[in-house]
Write a structure and sequence with these properties.
The complex is a heterodimer of chains A (590) and B (341). In chain A, 37% of the residues lie in helices and 18% in strands. Chain A has 590 residues and is an alpha+beta fold. The chains are: A alpha+beta (590), B mainly alpha (341).
């Protein structure tokens, strides 16, 4: 290759001569910049300038809750239930701000005094109002009421077990498990013949297989409301259908995103304050906070992070409100006894089992610091809880406060630990389990607060450990945990739902929590209070149950959550009642 | 070119046929992994309420007590007869869940790919033609930063600046709560509002897309910048480009007809696969901006061991990957005639 040839090759390969390329690239870059700038500024300007003005009467509520099913026969989550309660009238409902029942679709709340409850406590007579209609004009009468209850039992959805006390239902549910089609059909026929009976166009009677005083509370729950037979056939669930009988109708529905409610012209009662309500779902609490901060929404309800709520409390541009909630949080001990473990009734005995275990459970009850939890984890947005039956619920007594005190009693805890054979040199070693996301971000701080409190005895070493919810549930029911954190939202708003599932051994109640508390006398008391219709007598039995709870310490009640709502000063009519029914129809925005 | 067309057609037919065993393999792995993981869907979702009868009943209805091989073959049969089942978590048919969340994902995917492509190819080309000079260093730095920036954090920062501080753009969601969404035709707010002739709604939908698509697009552009730059450098230094220059072809034509066109073949492949990935959902971006898309759906499904939902998403995603990779191959064949299948 000659030097000349070489020069020629070099010249061809040199990109420095490619001026047109640079020109092309500059143009390309210019296009890039222009497109991005147009996207950003043009979009923003257009958004500001062209956005249509807000319609005059729209209330916008933001939430992080999500829906699952709007079918009353299958709805069993908070948000779905709340949409149903705002779009469908219940048979009875709660007086706003209280736990007192008042008629809704019924003309009167059944009681012993008015003859709505038979003297043996087994038959309930329900009188519907006259001229009730669904949003499409279909009549609501005793036939539709019976149809709705029969459908709920037949489909055996998630809340159907609450109807188990209706005569014939228990046998039908049992037949379903057997799987024999003939037996199932026969059991269902028996149920429909004896459970709910039509008396006249507006009256039905419901017969129970045994006395169960919480039954009246069940009339306020979504599973017992009346559905439109035209839209809800009795062979399947309709999770996305709402045919309104209440103040609002669901006019636009984008699953998991937004729900537009408009006034139902066929509602029998007082029309809602706003003709239109839009509920917007945000995927994170921080988004909900930002939406409230920037004024996109009028009301933020469920669920802001505790520090964000505290920040809003001191902000002048918004108002805040807190109210009691039926949600309780507690500590669970795996107290599977050696005898039950040997009999195969529970997985294994733990350090909290038997006589020595009782000393340790009491020691932890003495040492637990509810104030620290409320402060460090929840910025004082929760209330200490001293019984499984929360404050505001019938029969509530602060039994743990009475027995163990309102604040930690380290000396008493040390004494019990010493009795159990532990000391500052021979410490009790524990693993406290929690689940990091199911109950929200503060859960780790709760675990840390408990660790601090227990280790303050100087006789315990506490390790904190976590599992994601799916595994956490499997582990606790398998008996893998000794002590762990859990929470409860009631199925129906009656004290029974705070004792029966927790403490009743024979029904498998305590086992489902991973607790395995076994006390036959407690079982008898729980059954007695459920059958007792005299309030005074029932309160006395509930008192005995709670005293037993404090004496045996299968659980340590820790705190009761509070409902929190943030709203613009132009918003009025928000009521936070103890049953956590958030009424959209009482709220207005000026 | 009849020969080329025939070979491409044969290739497409082969790929479509191969899709069946590929899907079966994919479904098999998914099925096994789900069953091996701890926890079952019913207990996870409903167990807290604790009614053993209900849990038992639902498990029976779902066939979770059947032997695994029975569950597996039933599952395969359902998939190949178009029945993806009902989500245990949401109680809605899986196909409905996917179709209701797809519009959000489609809008986010297209808009963020637009940002990523314009920025990535533009800046990558810009840097590639100025190798080792200041603009190249600056672009490489941008690429490295954009690619490595935590998307969650970046989204929050953009949101804080443009939505909270400046108030120029909406904070989150797909549509303003005070406006009524356009009647649903495609589910895409941008398209549906245009079809309805509702300009404010269109502007609102576009405005809601800007921050999420910038967040995702800028992060993705970091990768595209790098891959475009490298391929432009490689193409512009190749023999065929030098040969073209030697023939006296104007540099502009050399660059656009020979250099850039060839440099884009691997870029298109990468972008196509990224496109397919985005269709499965961008979980972090969707979460930051409250977009109820496929990413959130799959995340929730996995969190709750929602077998039908996860399996349905895998089928959807498997088909999507095959279709898009096939599309990329076809596109590449047209961009580069040398490619034979």
């Amino acid at each position: 290759m000659s030097p000349k040839d070489g020069e020629g090759v070099t010249e061809l390969a040199t990109p420095e001569q490619s001026t047109p390329v640079r020109t092309g690239s500059r143009r390309l870059l210019a296009i890039v910049v222009v497109v991005v700038v147009i996207l950003l500024i043009g979009g923003a300007a257009a958004y500001i300038l062209l956005n249509a003005p807000a319609p005059a009467k729209v209330l916008v509520i933001g939430t992080t809750d999500d829906e699952i099913s709007f079918d009353p026969a299958d709805a069993y989550d908070y948000f779905s239930g709340n949409i149903i309660q705002n779009t469908m009238a219940m048979l009875v409902t709660y007086v706003p701000g209280t736990t007192n029942l008042t008629p809704d679709l019924l003309s009167v709340v059944p009681t012993l005094a008015n003859g709505g409850i038979s003297t043996d406590g087994l038959t309930y007579t329900l009188h519907l109002r006259t001229n009730l209609k669904f949003e499409d004009g279909t009549s609501i009468n005793s036939s539709t009421l019976k149809y709705s209850w029969d459908r709920a039992v037949k489909l055996n959805g998630l809340p159907a077990f609450l109807l188990d006390y209706i005569s014939g239902a228990h046998e039908y549910f049992g037949a379903l498990k057997g799987g024999d089609a003939t037996v199932i059909a026969s059991a269902y026929a028996n149920y429909t013949a004896q459970g709910v009976k039509i008396v006249d166009a507006t009256t039905v009677t419901v017969t129970l297989r045994q006395k169960w005083s919480p039954f009246v509370s069940l009339l306020a729950f979504t599973v017992t409301t009346v559905v439109n037979p035209k839209s809800f056939t009795n062979d399947r669930f309709y999770p996305n259908v709402v045919v309104s009988s209440g103040p609002y109708r669901l006019s636009t529905y984008l699953p998991h995103q937004r729900y537009e409610l408009t006034a139902n012209p066929n509602y029998y009662g007082t029309p809602p304050k706003m003709s239109r309500v839009t509920i917007v779902r945000y995927t994170t609490s921080s988004d909900l906070k930002l939406a409230m901060t920037t004024g996109v929404i009028d009301v933020a309800y469920r669920s802001l992070l505790p520090p964000d709520f505290t920040t809003f409390q001191s902000a002048a541009s918004v108002k805040t409100l807190q109210g009691a909630s039926p949600v309780i949080r507690y500590l669970v001990f795996n107290m599977c006894s050696s005898a039950d473990a040997a009999a195969g009734a529970c997985p294994r005995a733990t350090v909290f089992s038997d006589v020595n275990g009782a000393l340790l459970r009491k020691a932890l009850a003495y040492a637990s610091n509810r104030t620290d939890i409320a402060t460090s984890a929840y910025s004082n947005t929760v209330s200490p809880l001293y019984s499984l039956i929360p404050e505001g619920m019938f029969g509530h007594e602060d039994v743990f406060k009475t027995v163990y005190g309102a604040s930690p009693n380290i000396a008493a805890a040390q004494s019990l630990l010493t009795q159990a054979g532990y000391s500052t040199t021979s410490k009790l070693s524990l693993t406290l389990w929690y689940t990091p996301s199911h109950y929200g971000d503060p859960e780790i701080y709760v675990a840390q607060a408990l660790k601090r409190a227990w280790e303050a005895t100087g006789m315990m070493t506490v390790t904190i450990n976590e599992q994601e919810w799916a595994q956490y549930k499997a582990s606790r029911t398998a008996g893998d945990f000794d002590v762990f954190l859990l929470g409860w939202f009631p199925d129906y708003f009656d004290s029974d739902d705070y004792v029966f599932p927790f403490l009743h051994w024979a029904s498998g109640g305590s086992a489902q929590f991973g607790d395995w508390y076994h006390n036959n006398s407690m079982d008898a008391k729980i059954e007695a209070q459920a059958a007792e219709s005299d309030p005074t007598a029932r309160a006395q039995i509930l008192g005995e149950i709670q005293a037993g709870l404090a004496a045996d310490v299968p659980y340590v009640p820790l705190w009761q959550t509070n409902q929190q709502v943030v709203f613009k000063p132009t918003v009025s009519g928000i009521v936070l009642d103890p049953v956590q029914f958030f009424r959209y129809f009482t709220i207005s925005v000026s | 070119m009849p020969g080329s067309t025939t070979s491409l057609r044969a290739y497409v037919i082969t790929r479509v046929i191969l899709m069946v065993p590929m899907l079966v393999l994919l479904l098999t792995f998914t099925f096994i992994i789900l069953r091996v993981a701890p926890g079952d869907p019913v207990s996870t979702i409903y167990g807290e309420r604790g009614n053993p009868q209900v849990i038992d009943r639902i498990k029976t209805e779902l066939g979770l007590y059947d032997p695994l091989y029975v569950q597996f073959f039933r599952y395969l049969r359902d998939v190949f007869t178009g029945n993806m089942g009902t989500s245990i978590l949401t109680q809605r048919p899986v196909i409905d869940e996917i179709t209701s969340r797809m519009p959000a994902t489609i809008e986010l995917t297209f808009s963020s790919m637009l940002v990523a492509s314009v920025l990535g190819i533009g800046l990558g080309t810009f840097a590639g033609t100025r190798r080792d000079r200041l603009p190249d260093f600056a672009t490489r730095l941008y690429g490295a930063l954009a690619y490595n920036i935590p998307i969650f954090w970046f989204g929050l920062i953009l949101k804080l600046i443009f939505a909270v501080w400046l108030g120029w753009l909406p904070v989150s969601g797909r549509f303003s709560p005070r406006l009524s969404p356009p009647p649903t035709v495609t589910g895409l707010y941008t398209i549906d509002s245009l079809l309805a002739g509702n300009l404010p709604a269109f502007v609102d939908a576009v405005a809601h897309l800007i921050l999420p698509s910038l967040t995702l697009g800028i992060v993705l552009s970091g990768f595209f910048v790098r891959i475009t730059r490298v391929n432009v450098i490689h193409a512009m230094g190749s023999d065929y480009v030098e040969a073209a220059r030697a023939r006296g072809i104007p540099e502009r034509s050399v660059f656009f007809r020979h250099g850039l066109k060839n440099a884009l073949v691997p870029v298109i492949t990468t972008m196509g696969l990224t496109f397919a990935l985005l269709f499965s959902g961008a979980i972090l971006t969707e979460t930051v901006f409250s977009f109820e898309g496929m990413g959130r759906f799959v995340f929730l499904a996995i969190s709750y061991r929602d077998y039908p939902a996860i399996q349905g998403a895998v089928v959807y995603y498997g088909i999507l990957m095959v279709v898009i990779s096939l599309g990329i191959d076809i596109l590449n064949a047209f961009v580069d005639p040398r490619i034979r299948y």
